[in-house]
Amino acid sequence: MTITIAVAGETLAGERRVALVPETAKKFTGLGAHIRMEQGAGKHSQFQDNEYLDVPTAANLAQTYDGAQLILRVTPPTVDEINAMPEGAVLIGLLKPYEDKARLQALNARRISAFALELLPRISRAQSMDALSSQGACAGYQCALIAASHSSKFFPMLTTAAGTIRPARALVIGAGVAGLQAIATCKRLGAMVEAYDVRSAAREQVESLGAKFVDTGVTADGAGGYARELTDEEKALQAEKLAKAVATADVLITTAAIPGKKAPVIITEAMIAGMKYGAVVVDMAAESGGNCALTESNPLQDTYVNAHDVNIYGPVNLPSRMPTHASELYAKNLYNFLSPWIKEGELNIDWTDEVVAGALLCKDGATVHAMVKQVLGE
Question: The CATH number of 137-320 is which of 3.30.420.40, 1.10.10.10, 3.40.50.720, 3.40.350.10?
Answer without folding.
Answer: 3.40.50.720
